[in-house]
Amino acid sequence: MIGFDRLKRDFHQFKDKRQLLRDYDLFLADIRVYKMLPEMLGKEFYMKKAYPCPVKVHGFETSEELKEQLNKAAESAYFIQGNGPNYSMKIGRASQDAKDIAKNAEAALYQALGYVACWDKIDFESVSQVSVRIGDSVELPVFNHLSSDEIDAYMAHN
After folding, report:
1. Are residues 108 and 156 in the same domain?
2. Which of 40, 50, 55, 100 shows the smallest number of beta carbons within 10 Å?
3. Which carries the bigger pLDDT value, residue 122 or residue 111?
4. Residue 35, class by beta-carbon neighbours within 10 Å (0-12 exposed, 13-18 middle, 19+ buried)?
């Protein structure tokens, strides 16, 4: 755990922030300082999509309750809503069992599609592709929705 003051003091230079990104694969942030982090962490964090997950870490009766809260946050998936038509969600780690990642993907897709349908008013017919990707790899499509015009054009070509 790195306190806000230490983050401000020890990770001021760009190279230090890059090293912080390399050293950790998960960033949890106290909700009381969460809104101050973009300026503190810099654009490198957000370009690499290493968004800190806001977590309530105060007001717990016991340290066991805090530990449970932090573990729950660490095991959660993070839905990252972009500014454009694409959304991304981290659903697992390479160290996890394939069956666990598959369960995570199913649950995450269910939640994400429900979210965009409700809040972004996107109907399911508008979802054109769902892909999976590991790190900086090329996306592997697992679902493609073709419009009737696209299907007709494909059939006319073949």
Report:
1. yes
2. 100
3. 111
4. exposed
**DSSP β-ladder status, 140-144 and 129-132:** antiparallel
Question: CB atoms < 10 A from the CB of 33, how many?
Answer: 15
Owning domain of residue 116 = 77-158
Q: Is the pLDDT of residue 7 over 70?
A: yes
Q: Residue 55's closest CA among 116, 114, 109, 1?
A: 1
Q: What's the burial of 29, exposed, middle or buried (CB within 10 Å: 0-12/13-18/19+)?
A: buried
The more confident residue out of 145 and 19 is 19
Instruction: Note the pLDDT tens digit of each residue in 35-79.
Output: 899 888 888 888 887 888 888 998 999 999 999 998 888 877 777
Q: Calculate the CA dihedral of residues 115, 66, 103, 143 and round it to 10 degrees.
A: 30
The tally of domains found in the chain comes to 2
Q: 20 and 11 in contact (C-beta within 8 Å)?
A: yes
Q: Which helix (H) or strand (E) holds 100?
A: helix 98-119
For residues 42 and 1, membership in a common domain is answered with yes
